[in-house]
Amino acid sequence: MNLLTLFLSALLINNVILSKFIGMCPFLGVSTKLSSAIGMGLAVIFVIFGASCLSWALYYYVLVPLGLEYMKLICFILLIAAFVQFVEMFVKKNSPSLYKSLGIYLPLITTNCAVLYVALDNITQGYNFIETVVNSIAVPAGFMLVLLIFATIRERLASADVPDAWKGNPIAFVVAAIMAIAFSAFAGLV
Amino acid sequence: MRVLFGILIAAALLGVNAWLYIANKNTPVPEGCENLKPDCSGCGITDCAIRKKEEE
Predict the structure, then answer these.
(1) Quick check: B34 contacting A, CB < 8 Å?
(2) Minimal CB count within 10 Å: which of A7, A45, A131, A187?
C-alpha cells in the first residue's frame, strides 16, 4: 500500500475517533481545556508509536515462530502496560521538562483503548514494519487533531448561550456528531 | 510444549510489568516536579487514580 495513502487514510478518512469510535473516553474527558488536550495528544502519539512498534516485533519475532498467535491480545495488553511504566520512569530520570508536560497524562494512557487498537490493527491488516511505523504515527496524529479541534470548540461552547438541558455532554455529543459528518467528506480524498 | 511456552511468555511479561511498576514507583520525581498538579477541572474521567489522589 502507498505510504501516503495509508497515512492520509489513518489520519483523516478512518479517523480513530470519528470513524471507528475508539478512544471516546479521553476524547470527551480531556477536551474541555486546550492545554490538557495538547498534553494528552502528545503523550498518546508517543505511547502509541512505541507500543505499536514493540507489539509488531513481539508478534512476528516471538509469537509467530512459537505458534502462539492466539496470545497476541494478552501479550499486547501486558506489553503496553509495561511500556507506559518504562516511559514514565525514563522521562522522570532523563527529562524533567518533558515530565512536567506529559508526566501526568502517561498513566491515563494505559487505559486508552486506541493504543491496543493500533497494535492489533497493524497485525490484522498484515502491515510490514514501515507500514506499521506510518500507521502508528498517523492514527494518534488523527486522534490529536480531532482532540484539539474538539477542545477549541468546547472552550468556546463554555461561554456560549447554550440551553440548560444541552449544557455539558449533550452539546458535546452534538458537536462530535457534526464533526464526524464533516470528516466523512474526506472519504473521497483517496 | 507450546502451552508451556505460552505460559512462560505471559509470566515473563507479567514479571517485567511488576518489576517496571516497582522501579517506576521508586524512581524519585525530578526537582521542580514534586508538586505537579493535574488539571482535573479540564478532565471528565472521574474514576482516574490521579483524580482520586487529588481529592484526598
Answers:
(1) no
(2) A187
The residue in chain A having the minimum alpha-carbon distance to the alpha carbon of residue B25 is A89
pLDDT in tens, A44-78: 888 899 999 999 999 999 999 988 889 899 999 99
**Which pTM value belongs to this model?**
0.81
Of A25, A75, A86, the CB nearest to B9: A75
Q: Tell me which of A89, A113, A150 to substitute to probe the interface with B (most B C-beta atoms closer than 10 Å).
A: A89
Compute the Cα dihedral for A125, A128, A134, A136 and give only its sign. positive
Instruction: End-to-end CA distance of chain A: give it in Å, rounded.
Output: 12
What the block records as the C-alpha cell of A178 is 457534526
CA distances from residue A26 to A32, A38, A69, B38 in whole angstroms, order as listed: 10, 12, 30, 14
Interface residue B30 vs chain A (CB under 8 A): yes
User: What are the distances in angstroms from CA A2 to CA A7, A9, A53, A119, A135?
Assistant: 9, 10, 19, 20, 12
Q: Cell numbers for A70, please give them.
A: 492466539
- Alpha-carbon dihedral of residues A33, A183, A163, A37, nearest 10 degrees? -10
Rounded to whole angstroms, the Cα distance separating A59 from A68 reads 9
Is residue A93 within 8 angstroms of chain B, CB to CB?
yes
**B36 has pLDDT over 70:** no
A59 → chain B, closest CA residue: B9
User: Distance (Å, rounded) from C-alpha A82 to C-alpha A101?
Assistant: 21
Its ipTM equals: 0.73
CB A16 within 8 A of CB A114: yes
Is some CB atom of chain A closer than 8 A to the CB atom of B15? no
